[in-house]
Amino acid sequence: MSRRLVVLGAPGAGKGTQAARISEHLGIPTISTGALFRSHMAARDELGTLVAGYIDAGNLVPDEVTTRMVAERLAEPDVVEGFILDGYPRNLAQAEQLDVMLADRPLDAVVEFVVDTEAVVERLLRRAEIEGRSDDTADVIRHRIEVYHENTAPLVDHYRGRGLLLEVDAMGQIDDVTERTLAALENA
Ligand code: ADP
Question: What is the mean pLDDT of residues 1-30?
Answer without folding.
Answer: 93
